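Self-study notes.
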Amino acid sequence: MKIVVADLAQIELRMNAWFCGEGWLIDALREGRDVYCELGTDIYGRLITKADELERYVGKQGELSCGYQSGPNKFFGTMRGHGVKITLEEAQRAVKVYRAKHVNIVHMWAWLQKTAIPILAGTSLLEWTQLRGCRFSKGQILLPSGRSLWYPDLHVDESGDWKYRVNKKRNQGNEWKKLYGGMVLENLIQALSYDVFVGHLLEAQRRGFPVVMAVHDEGVWCVRDDLAETVKRVAEEVMAIPPVWCADAPLKAEAGIGDDYAEAKKNAG
């Protein structure tokens, strides 16, 4: 028996670029460019390649966390949490460079803050609006898949922040969570990415190859040796096709085969 692992490469980055219409980033991803090195190059003012592991990692985290409106202090804390020692000045430069480079994503934060959140709170003159197949109305974002994101009792608190009610685990009552444009975008992108992924797994099952498990954005198959290459090909094909509601999203899939999960994952890509 063989294990096949297929991964939706950079799914959140790709879905964020699509949702926000960040054209240059969509083109770069389709062309297979290393956008982490490109951002690292802009941050450090010199050519960054895969050999520059630290600087490329800063570029990678910049593309991922700054896409959800991380400020310098949060980015600094994120990097330190990952064991990467950068200065606060470097974090400030990374955030500044990211925002200058990703204009449409920055504009999306503002639109979500100024237009979408008041609709979710029921305080806007608009009862609802729609963007990229997502319908915004009081307390709810209805996704193209039919699932919803919910923001109960959304209101402005005494500090001027938007807050919504979150149920604590194990019947410990409620807590209030801050909501802002970048957080709404993060919720949306993660939810949409999940829906894309699940759709791919269902399509693979329809083709006769059900997964045995899923890990984050990876599908895992356990198949006979003679079927391994076929399943790998089908998985890469299925997972590279976006659903109809994001037909122009720049998806990419990477698959690998091995005698166990770790080997198959290592061989993916």
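Second protein, same conventions, sequence then structure:
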Amino acid sequence: MSGKNILYEGEIKLEKKHCTSEYGKIYEYNKNTYYRRKWDTESDIKWTIYDNKTIIIKGNGVIPDYQSFDNPEENAWFYPSPWYYYRDCYNNIIIENGITSIGDYSFDKSKFATSVIIPNSVTNIGNHSFRDCHNLQSIIIGNSVETIESYAFCKCLNLTYIIIPESVKYIEYSAFYLCKSLNEIINYATEPQKLGEKVFRGMDKTKCVLKVPYKSIEKYKNSEGWKEFENIKPIKFNCVKSFITWVKKLITSKLVLWKYQK
């Protein structure tokens, strides 16, 4: 049955280590892949790509930081994620509860990915983590994410709709750079998040609708970065209802249905 056959798989096992290296990062070599991580983190993660075009990341701990470049053959510091070379084999990215952080460049250039599920256990979305996912259309961000780092979703050219949970406190430089198709942002934070420079540059802020809590509209209209949106509206019941409908569609899709096919 489609969805049960494994195409590729691997593990990431990191023990907690003390490190005095620059920026508190430790550089290690494991199974032909370099990665970076904070000195005090540990991980026991398994990744699997199935024949239904789904990659599932499960386990406990952080997905470590990786690195990639437009011209890797010219750069000695090219150390992509272990699934980087199989990125054409998946459309759906499911990160399961237990993963606490998504490292830099984790899913960089996953050009055929169309959907991402980020669970409630994740608190941080790293730099360039979903950069150049040109066909990404939907993102579910768990309600524990606090920081969306620089260029996290830059050049997601087909992303039309995003919900930002109230837990998010910081959105860093150019996090949604060149997300040209964004036409609606629903932001549940009552206090406008602190934005880095040019978070939403390259998109049409005269057409994109920003929906926020009713009592916070004036705060957003006077907040740096957010005030650039010309169409700020209150979140209404019908907006919440449409979100529920959207989630139900995802649940009934093959993205999540896979779990019931095992």
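Instructor comment on the second fold: The chain has a mean pLDDT of 83.
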